[in-house]
Design a protein that fits this description.
The complex is a heterodimer of chains A (about 725) and B (about 1050).
Chain A (H helix, E strand, L loop, with lengths): L13 E3 L2 E3 L3 E3 L11 H14 L3 E8 L12 E2 L3 H16 L3 E7 L15 E2 L16 E2 L2 H21 L3 E6 L4 H6 L14 H19 L4 E7 L11 H15 L4 E5 L6 H4 L12 H4 L2 H5 L5 E3 L6 H9 L5 E4 L1 H5 L3 H6 L14 H7 L33 E5 L3 H12 L3 E5 L8 H6 L9 H12 L3 E4 L7 H6 L4 E4 L3 E3 L22 E2 L1 H5 L8 E6 L4 H12 L3 E6 L14 H10 L3 E3 L2 E7 L2 E6 L7 E4 L2 E4 L6 E4 L2 E5 L2 E3 L2 H8 L11 E4 L9 H13 L38
Parallel strand pairs in A: 3-4, 3-13, 4-5, 4-6, 6-9, 7-8, 9-10, 10-11, 11-12, 12-13, 14-15, 14-17, 15-16, 17-30, 19-28, 20-21, 20-28, 21-22
Antiparallel strand pairs in A: 1-2, 18-29, 23-24, 24-27, 25-26
Helix pairs in contact in A: 1-2, 2-3, 3-5, 5-6, 14-16, 14-22
Chain B lengths: L11 H31 L9 H14 L1 H4 L3 H35 L6 H31 L19 H34 L9 H12 L4 H25 L7 H10 L29 H9 L5 H5 L1 H4 L6 H15 L16 H6 L5 H5 L6 H15 L4 H13 L22 E2 L7 E4 L2 H5 L1 H16 L4 E3 L9 H6 L2 H16 L6 E4 L2 H10 L9 E3 H11 L11 E4 L13 H9 L3 E2 L30 H10 L6 E4 L2 H13 L7 E4 H8 L10 H34 L32 H5 L7 H15 L37 E5 L2 E5 L17 E5 L1 H17 L3 E7 L5 H10 L3 E6 L8 H15 L3 E5 L10 H9 L3 E10 L4 E7 L5 E7 L2 E5 L11 H7 L4 E5 L30 H17 L1
The chains are: A alpha/beta (about 725), B alpha/beta (about 1050).
Chain lengths: ~725, ~1050
């Protein structure tokens, strides 16, 4: 198949500074949690994108000095020789495929928690961090010599970057890091030449870029990732004007080789990493489209917008918005996106669904994984390639029961590995419970999970998909004639209120009643009776708020009750918290936190406050304990929607296990289970489960994973730095 | 005393005989008249009011002046005048004698028929009879010598080559009328001559003709005795003929002499201008039967003399539409006489005696009634009969949809009412809305001037002219609806009335205005003549009149006399119907144009073909449209550069005709207003128009360039394709249609030899002669990549025989022990989004094709399996005509539950057609003897949908197609449910064995489990040699495969609003195209 000629422009090389990109695909700096501490994971993860066609690939934010220590968040670091070695591996992998390696230099000033290094960060003003207020993080006020120190820190880091093999250094001008702490009035309280007017506030950034350009500019690209607007509500500073004003001012200096653009600061990261529930492709356009006109044709502009469709990309380029397509999430979801466009295989693109589970991992101080791409992060440690599958040496026939995401993924991978697969789905369409999810308010892009796999299944001649066959009994399975069976029958929402709090049913909460509903029932058309609706959310992800919005859109008075400390608490990790709260405010959805259901009867839901007992401990009837108050809150509740917990549909699997004695006579060699029917979990993990099982299908006990490579210091090897090493010479005093 | 003796030499008995004969003649005459009156009495009331006094005066004037008869046929007019006045004098003379002899003398014993009176009487009558004879002679000569088309009763417009029997009678009548009258006249003069020869009198010179005859006879040597002898017998001859002639008058075409008196007196001066309303309490619309005709209509019918003037004038007839007004009237007259106007029920008239196409052919131009000398009002009758057709819904679908559009949107363009004044948006000024502010003049624009792009330009010009002249005008804007003139003439009276009601309501709700002008003669006619019958309107003027006035008053000043040679087309509705002939001519004169009149102009103007709703109907095939006829007429005028109209429909029709008649470069078609604009140097251009103009110019240039490039490319591609070696074509096997090749047992070659392929070849092949030799050689070179050319016998069209099942002697199925169902399956090819052709371009590269079990056959299998399951046992046998790869599908079928499979194949069957396939399946069926044969309703790749049914025909089995449900009824029958269009279900029972073709969407086909798939590998799958299929006709070949040219696509830019606006624009353009 051939590339559509209109997409050719995406494959035209483009130069910035001393470097040339082979095409227009730029993997923007994005966090992974791999940092410099997991060099293999980092190198192979980024290297896969290089193999897939991304021409420029950048690290996550990379701290220039131990003063800027973001631990427990794992950023990259270029503090010493050890980091040079570790990140050097990444550069090596990228260069194998002809891609440019970039590093995003970062100093976090007043927002650096310093939990590992215990160093005190410096900043333009001595203010507490609003990003980590709960950690009591302050910065020391920088005098003019400290400002020179900052610059030296960056320059030394840039030199280490060059040593590691990086092709360009990208200076973060976003996410509230140091240059922005100078530029933004709210952080810059200075009255010297670095404070006050825009020119003064920009002075540090200009001096920084000038120094870097002088130091490495003839060998490396020196670029900026700059946010043109912080879009942050009340305390939004005059930034759009300052933003564009700054670009004009900086551009005049002629020290920036390329502008990569974004919006939203640290607090509004969710506007940069806009989730599909709130932001559609190229939502930043209005905020960034003027820059190209300012910097002219010689300086390339990179623009992001969760682009997965080449038509949108060429529109952005042809429309004068940018020269280069920046992408973080789409490159995670499909490292081979450029290759697929180039080969005209648009239908094979594994499109990002904008669920933000990737960033949620980093926000939980974990490691990056992806819902759509089960191999992301596994390139090194498990040796998985997203587009290559080891052919099974002796493929047998496999029956996969259940066409939800896990079953589909498993069937696809088994199919690609050469197994003879029958994927059987009880319903007339594939997708399992995810079909419901894709129909929740705002969640339509989540449907890409299903369509992508459907297309892949259709292409596999050795996989038959049977739809609408009804639920299989154990007899059906045993008589089916498959050598191996994979059960992927999913899970359902609890119908009795059992959930994460007290772990018991709530008396009266019975979803067989008209007034008690589960999300599945609602999506199947069960009407929500009455006016007053309570959503009891023990899940904290998107389902509770989706049900609340759905009911509110029907004109109901909705209260979202959760046992957690905040509503929709998981969305703190997916960067959706702020917009979720704005949404609830706009739709007049009331909220109650730290409450759980006590009883539901006669249209009244009684709730108890989780901390209704006294702080003191008392001896009660010979035991120590707390004195409970009997206080209850009563809510009028015409309809109670239970989003409390998910329960595996494990009956078939257990029945088959019970009848293991019959397997042999029916020539069934093994029965496995994957996804939610094993245990309910995030979709990314259910898909991973199906994928992993198929990858490891010939292992001795494939139900359970094979070991992976762990990256950590092994005792007895070199350390960097060693005790007694000198502090890098950054200070001037 | 000067007189002459009546009844000389007759005895009393002879005189009595004469009186008896005379009385009998009068009785027969009266009987004839009575019969007509009886018929008229059965007629319906006259639906319009007529002024009998005014009518009688007009009739007298018309009869005495003979004006109508002289028009456009002077010789006939003069001859008729001779006959008429001669006959009139003869009749008066006879009456005078009758009064004198039979009344005055018996009463008074005296006579006044003598003396000077007698002498003058003799002279006048002699001269009268002379003119009568001369008139008759002219008529006879005209008829005999000049084969005038209008006197030809052959309906060549209907393809008649011979006279119909009725027409033969008409011709006899015509000749009888002329010849009998001529003989009467000649015998009359002979009588006078012999009398004067036998009994010379002194006053003989008072009868100059008679004297002349006498002298001639004498000169010829006739003696008085001979004369006396002849005189006696000639008298009886003359008398009997005269009496017979008189008696016959009411019984044939001579009755026009009487009927015309009524017909002309009752003439409706507004006929066609104002059509009759529908009477309120009437069971059926218009004229359904002859009984619905009014007595006046019947009188009209009787007045027709078959002069053919209407036949000649009718533009529909001239364009070979199935209508001649004369023939319509004659058919109606014959039918009225036959039924005596008394058919109470039955609808045999409209659609029977008069065919619907005839009625729809009328253009409502009024040419027929305008030229008719006896005052027949054809169009009104036609409209009345159309009303009946409309009520029955027997309309051209296009017309029907147009009427629907008018009903829905108030205009015939099916545009939103809001768009009606969209054309004003391009004006530099805002046009007043009469509903909001008063104005001097209300401009009723009409549909074509409002919506048709060409006419919109004219409307804009008119608006600019009016503004330049300072006329204070306004529009009704979206308040206006079609005036309804043509809707009424179509016969849709109900819709017309609602349009009138709407427009009148709009007019009455307006701010004050003093008069209406319109650019549309059709609207002009109905508003002027018909609207007043429904409510109050204002005086209305056609814009040509307005322009003439403005030019005359100096409100419009000609700054640039045009000096053009132009010709002008009189719109029927403006000229002939409403007499506005001068205004446009005054305008043309004022602006300095030299008007060369059309040969057919003014009242003889020739319709453009748009009237009577014809513009909304399809042209009848194979006819030259009236507008094209008119174009030829205009082009024949020397030096005319411009063809001027002042009617939007004319403009549309003639702009079109100019191109279709091949006169695109000969002249231009312009509206009067456009010339006026030029002459007054109307500056319609302003700076703000500049961008649009520039855009239009660039578009035009770009389109030109694109056309040129495309033409070049086409030429290159065609040349390349032609240069390619031709695949085997039909020449080498000499199929039907190949004249040069002899028929015969040519080496049969499968495929290429069907005559079908010639029609299918998408690329124009090289000239056949050249291709012939080349092909024979090129064949081998090309063939290897496609199926080897295995032969089938070619179709011999002279020896067609029923198809027979092929015989498979070596195949022996297992003995039938139980219910057996045969399921025919196909392994179909599925094409992906991308594909490439094989190098010979006769097939798709196999790499781009995937194969699978045909979906419909899967449904058939499911039906078979379910049937067996419900029956509690049985055998399902799958049969497939297909190559080895097809075993994949057969194995699938076996896995799903079929018991056995049979595959028939021979490598020569690659291009077998459905009939060949069917013969193979039938051959297997003949062996298997199944109780039921099921097949998919069609195949997913070729979709012929033929093989299944063909099997049934070959085997002579009962069959049903598109079956969605079936079950055994228990008595050797199957109960079948078919799904028809729109979800209609058709249930019935068929005896078995039968063949059913199964539609998808019944029960979902089952999936085979892995165990079933494994087991299927052991089920019997037998291959049969299919070479037996190759010895008969059928098959097809692919000559070329090609990708249809891609349409141009355009990326839409801008915001959603811009895109939506663009899409709407494209749709509008397509609608108007």
């Amino acid at each position: 198949m051939a590339r559509n000629p209109k997409h050719d422009i995406l494959f035209e090389p483009i130069s910035f500074g001393p470097k040339t990109m082979r095409n227009r695909f730029w993997q923007s700096a994005h966090c992974t949690g791999y940092g410099s501490e997991r060099p293999g994971t980092q190198a192979y993860f980024r290297g896969m994108k290089a193999e897939g066609g991304w021409a420029a690939i950048c690290t996550e934010a990379c701290s220039v000095h131990p003063e800027s220590d973001d631990y427990p968040w794992h950023l990259a670091r270029l503090w010493d020789e050890g980091d040079v070695i570790n990140l050097g591996k990444m550069c090596e992998e990228l260069h194998k495929h002809g891609s440019l390696a970039g590093v995003q230099l970062w100093y976090n000033g007043l927002h650096a928690p310093g939990l590992e290094s215990r160093e005190v960060p410096r900043a333009p003003s001595g203010l507490p961090s609003n990003v980590f207020p709960e950690r009591n993080v302050y910065a020391a006020v920088a005098d003019e010599s400290d400002i020179k120190t900052f610059i030296k820190m960056y320059v030394l880091a840039a030199k280490r970057a060059e040593q590691a093999g990086f092709d360009f250094v990208e200076i973060s001008g976003g996410d509230s890091c140091l240059p922005m702490q100078f530029l933004e009035k709210r952080y810059n309280r200075r009255d010297d030449k670095y404070g006050g007017s825009l020119e003064n506030r920009a002075r540090f950034f200009v001096e920084l870029m000038t120094a870097l350009k002088r130091a490495v500019g003839d060998r490396l690209g020196v670029t900026i990732r700059f946010e043109t607007d912080t879009v942050n509500g009340d305390h939004r500073i005059e930034y759009y004007a300052d933003g564009i004003g700054f670009v004009e001012l900086m551009h005049k200096e002629g020290v920036v080789d390329l502008w990569a653009l974004k919006i939203g600061d640290y607090e509004e990261w969710g506007e940069d990493a806009g989730s599909s529930r709130f932001r559609k492709t190229n939502w930043m356009r209005p905020f960034v489209q003027d820059v190209k006109g300012i910097v002219g044709s010689a300086i390339p502009v990179v623009s992001n917008g969760r682009f997965t469709n080449p038509d949108d990309m060429i529109e952005a380029i042809n429309g004068g918005q940018c020269d280069i397509i920046g992408a973080a999430r789409p490159s995670i979801s499909d490292p081979f996106l450029p290759t697929k466009i180039s080969e005209g295989r648009i239908e094979d693109i594994r499109e990002c669904i904008g669920c933000n589970m990737c960033v949620s991992r980093m926000q939980q101080q974990g490691l990056l994984y992806c819902t759509q791409n089960a191999t992301s992060g596994e390139e090194y440690r498990r040796g998985w390639h997203p587009e290559k599958f080891e052919k099974a040496k002796d493929p047998c026939s496999v029956l996969v029961v259940g066409g939800g995401p896990a079953g589909m993924e498993c069937a696809v991978v088994l199919g690609k590995r050469g197994y003879d697969v029958h994927l059987r789905e009880a319903e007339g369409e594939l997708g399992g419970h995810w079909r419901d999810v894709a129909r929740y308010p705002r969640c339509s892009e989540f449907g890409r999970v299903i369509t992508h796999r459907q297309i892949q299944l259709d292409k596999l001649k050795n996989v038959e998909t049977h739809l609408g066959v009804g639920k299989m009994s154990a007899d059906d399975v045993l008589e089916y004639g498959a050598d191996k069976v994979v059960i992927a029958t999913g899970a359902h929402w609890s119908t009795d209120g059992t959930g994460a709090e007290i772990h018991r049913p709530i008396p009266g909460a019975d979803a067989s009643l008209p007034s008690v509903l589960t999300p599945e029932q609602i999506m199947a058309g069960k009407p929500i009776p009455g006016q007053k609706v309570v959503v009891l959310d023990g899940d904290g992800h998107f389902t509770g708020i989706a049900m609340a919005e759905l009911a509110a859109d029907l004109g109901k008075e909705v209260t979202l009750v959760t046992n957690m400390h905040d509503v929709v608490q998981f969305s703190l990790y997916t960067m959706e918290m702020a917009n979720n709260k704005r949404l609830m405010y706009e739709k007049k959805i009331k909220t109650m936190t730290n409450h759980w259901g006590h009883e539901y009867a006669d249209g009244k839901l009684s709730l108890f406050y989780l901390y209704r007992d006294t702080p003191e401990l008392y001896e009660l009837e010979g035991k120590w304990g707390r004195r409970l108050s009997g206080d209850l809150v009563h809510l009028d509740c015409d309809a109670l929607i239970l989003v409390t917990m998910r329960v595996p549909n494990a009956e078939l699997f257990h029945e088959l296990l019970r009848r293991q004695s019959e397997w042999e006579e029916n020539e069934v060699q093994a029965v496995y289970r994957i996804g939610d029917c094993y245990t309910p979990r995030h979709l990314m993990n259910a898909i991973f489960d199906g994928h992993r099982l198929a990858r490891e299908f010939e292992s001795p006990h494939p139900q359970y994973p094979l070991p992976f490579i762990r990256e950590r210091q092994i005792w007895g090897n070199d350390t960097y730095p060693k005790l007694g090493d000198a502090r890098p010479n950054v200070e001037f005093a | 005393m000067e007189t002459r003796e009546l009844f000389w030499s007759l005895d009393a008995a002879q005189i009595a005989l004469f009186y008896a004969l005379g009385t009998a003649a009068i009785v027969v005459f009266l009987l004839g008249c009575w019969r007509h009156f009886a018929k008229y009495r059965r007629g319906a009331p006259v639906p319009v009011q007529v002024d009998l006094c005014r009518g009688a005066v007009a009739m007298l004037w018309s009869v005495l002046s003979h004006r109508a008869l002289r028009r456009r046929d002077r010789s006939a007019g003069v001859a008729h005048a001779g006959i008429f006045f001669g006959f009139l004098l003869a009749a008066i003379g006879t009456t005078i004698i009758f009064v004198d002899y039979d009344i005055f003398q018996p009463l008074s014993g005296l006579s006044f028929w003598k003396g000077d009176f007698y002498l003058w009487f003799s002279l006048v009558l002699d001269l009268g009879h002379l003119t009568l004879i001369l008139g008759l002679l002219v008529m006879v000569t005209r008829r005999a010598a000049f084969a005038l088309p209008k006197l030809d009763y052959r309906r060549s417009y209907e393809g008649e080559t011979e006279l119909r029997p009725q027409a033969k009678i008409w011709r006899i009548e015509d000749w009888a009328f002329l010849s009998v009258l001529l003989v009467i006249e000649i015998t009359g003069f002979l009588q006078e001559g012999t009398r004067l020869l036998a009994e010379p009198v002194a006053w003989a010179h008072w009868s100059p003709i008679g004297l002349g005859v006498a002298n001639l006879l004498a000169a010829l040597g006739m003696t008085p005795e001979t004369a006396t002898a002849i005189r006696s017998s000639n008298w009886w001859l003359h008398a009997i003929l005269a009496l017979a002639f008189t008696a016959a008058i009411p019984w044939y075409k001579a009755k026009h002499m009487l009927a015309v008196l009524g017909s002309l007196s009752l003439r409706d001066i507004k006929a066609l201008r104002r059509l009759p309303k529908e009477p309120e309490q009437k069971s059926t619309a218009g004229y359904a039967t002859i009984a619905d005709f009014s007595w006046k209509d019947m009188l009209n019918l009787d007045a027709c003399t078959r002069c053919g003037r209407c036949h000649e004038a009718c533009p529909a007839r001239a364009s070979h539409y199935p209508l001649s007004p004369r023939d319509l009237i004659l058919d109606l007259r014959d039918y009225a006489d036959e039924t005596q106007g008394a058919v109470a029920n039955g609808l045999d008239l409209v659609g029977g005696v008069i065919e619907a196409e005839t009625l729809w052919a009328c253009l409502s131009c009024g040419a027929c009634q305008e030229i008719c000398p006896v005052g027949i009002e054809h169009p009104a009758m036609i409209v009345q009969m159309r009303r009946q057709l409309v009520e029955r819904g027997e309309l051209d679908p296009l017309l029907q949809s147009t009427l629907g559009a008018v009903a829905n949107t108030g205009n015939s363009f099916n545009e939103s009412a809001r768009k009606r004044s969209a054309w004003t948006r391009e004006l530099e000024f805002k046009v007043k809305d009469i509903r909001d502010e008063p104005a001097e003049v209300l401009w009723f624009v009409g549909d074509y001037a409002s919506f048709d792009p060409r006419n919109q330009k004219v409307s804009q010009t008119v608006a600019r002219i009016l503004r330049a002249a300072g006329v204070d005008f306004a529009l009704l804007h979206e308040g206006e609806q079609t005036a309804g003139n043509d809707v009424r003439r179509i016969g849709e009276e109900g819709l017309f009335e609602s349009l009138v009601k709407h427009n009148l309501a709009q007019l009455s709700g307006c701010k004050p205005f003093s008069r209406i002008i319109t650019t549309d003669p059709h609207s002009y006619n109905t508003i002027k003549n018909e609207y007043p019958e429904f409510g109050q309107t204002a005086p209305i003027q056609h814009y040509s009149e307005t322009l003439a006035d403005l030019l005359a008053s100096g409100d419009l000043k000609v700054v640039k006399p045009l000096g053009k040679r132009v010709t002008f087309h009189d719109p029927c509705h403006l000229g002939r119907l409403n007499g506005v002939y001068e205004a446009p001519r005054r305008v043309l004169k004022a602006i300095g144009c030299e008007l060369i009149e059309m040969p057919r102009s003014r009242d003889n103007s020739f319709c453009c073909g748009a009237g009577g709703g014809r513009i909304w109907m399809r042209d009848q095939p194979g006819t030259e449209r009236p507008s094209e006829d008119r174009m030829h007429e205009a082009v024949a005028l020397s030096g005319v550069e411009s063809f001027i109209t002042c009617c939007p429909k004319d403009l549309t029709m003639f702009e079109d005709a100019r191109k279709t008649s091949g006169h695109e470069n000969d002249l231009v078609v312009e509206d009067l207003a456009e010339l006026v604009a030029e002459a007054i140097a109307l500056d319609s251009f302003s700076l703000k128009d500049l961008p649009q103009l520039a855009e239009r110019i660039t578009d035009t240039v770009a389109a030109r360039i694109a056309d040129v490039v495309a033409a070049r490319l086409d030429a290159v591609l065609t040349a390349r394709l032609t240069a390619l070696p031709q695949p085997a074509s039909s020449e080498d096997s000499g199929t039907a249609g190949s004249v040069s090749s002899p028929q015969g047992p040519a080496a049969p070659a499968f495929g290429a030899r069907s005559s079908l392929e010639r029609g299918e070849a998408p690329v124009s092949p090289a000239p056949r002669g050249e291709a012939h030799g080349k092909v024979a050689q090129g064949d081998d070179a090309l063939e290897p990549s496609s199926a080897p050319a295995i032969s089938l016998r070619q179709m011999d069209w002279d020896k067609l025989a029923p198809l027979a099942p092929v015989s498979f002697p070596e195949y022996e199925p297992p003995a039938k022990e139980t219910l057996r169902i045969l399921v025919a399956v196909k392994h179909i090819a599925v094409l992906g989004d991308e594909y490439e052709f094989t190098p010979d371009r006769r097939d798709i590269q196999p790499a781009y094709l995937e194969h699978e079990l045909n979906e419909w056959d899967d449904a058939a299998l499911e039906a078979a399996l379910q049937l067996i399951e419900t029956a509690g046992g049985g055998e399902v046998v799958a049969v497939c005509i297909g190559p080895e790869e097809a075993e994949a599908s057969l194995r699938k079928v076996l896995a799903k539950g079929a018991d056995r499979a049979v595959r028939v194949w021979h490598e020569g069957l690659g291009a077998a057609d459905p009939l060949t396939i069917a013969r193979g399946i039938a051959g297997v069926a003949a062996k298997e003897q199944p109780d039921l044969i099921l097949a998919g309703a069609q195949s997913g790749d070729q979709a012929n949908g033929a093989a299944g049914t063909a099997v049934a025909r070959i085997l002579g089995l009962p069959h049903a197609a598109v079956v969605v449900g079936l079950q055994w009824t228990g008595d050797g029958c199957v109960s079948v449910t078919r799904e028809l269009e729109g979800g209609v279900r058709h249930h019935f029972t068929l005896p078995t064995p039968a063949l059913l073709t199964i539609q998808t969407g019944g029960s979902a086909p089952r999936y085979a489990t892995m165990r079933m798939i494994k087991q299927a590998k052991k089920k019997p799958l037998i291959e049969i040699d299919g070479s037996g299929l190759l010895d008969d006709g059928g098959g097809y070949s692919v000559r070329r495969m090609y990708t249809p040219p891609k349409e141009r696509a355009q990326m839409l830019e801008g915001g959603p609003d811009d895109m939506a606006a663009f899409v709407v624009k494209v749709i509008r353009q397509m609608e108007n195209a």
